[in-house]
Hints:
Structural class: mainly alpha
Low-confidence stretches: 1-5
Strand order of the largest sheet: 1-2
Radius of gyration: 23 Å
Distance between the termini: 54 Å
Oligomer: single chain
Number of strands: 2
Mean pLDDT: 83
Number of helices: 10
Strand content: under 5%
Helix content: 55-70%
Order of helices and strands: HHHHHEEHHHHH
Largest sheet: 2 strands, antiparallel
Shape: flat
Amino acid sequence: MGAEHTHGLHLPGQSTVHRLPAHLKIVSTLAFVLLVVATPREATWPYAVHLAALMLVARTARVPAAYLATRLVVEVPFVVFAVVLPFVATGPRISVLGLSVSEPGLVAAWALLAKGTLGVLAALLLAATTEPRDLLTGLTRLRLPRQLVEIMGFMVRYVEVVTGDLRRMSIALASRGFDARSPRQWPVLATCLGALFVRSYERGERVHLAMLSRGYAGSLPVLDAAPLRVGDVLVAAALPTIAAVGMGAAVLTR
Length: 254
């Protein structure tokens, strides 16, 4: 339990962004996302301002563009929905590249794609510059319910154990010639998932009993946080400030 746990999204570094307290980065990211959502969807240039702010953070934190690009695949379902939306939405229709599309649907698709991409990029930058352990500490300092933080902490610690069990089960099935290409193989997959659930549940009980025997009283000890510095607050406030300027200008010029 006391061993160091890393995550595939985290990129170790010594930049100014990496050194910021986790709770400040969480608040900054949340404020940025809320401002992006509040930006009028009819505007276009404010989203370029938001993107430039994120790219500035990525450059400061030395997060490669390839790292962000490869992980943007998580928003593929939203991209597909945004592509379909102009064709199925109602309202006045216009011609784009010889295709008849709904004008309100086109605007909604643009807003969905722009805001979703900016939100995912902000979350990726937060994950890349903050260790999972520090994120949990930051959530604790922000007074998130203790039980919820504990659940998230155990999930971070043991997700690799569960995925390792799943990987070994997949290798065992493949070594026996199993190939799930038709619904007739689904019962085998269901049995494997059931066995994985039972094994994980039993492991959780054993871990809980072991922790109780070592004095666990419902919460893990939290190290004393470093004192908050004015410089850290100013740096963390830079991202939402730029977003607020862009959003405010878009509202005033409507």
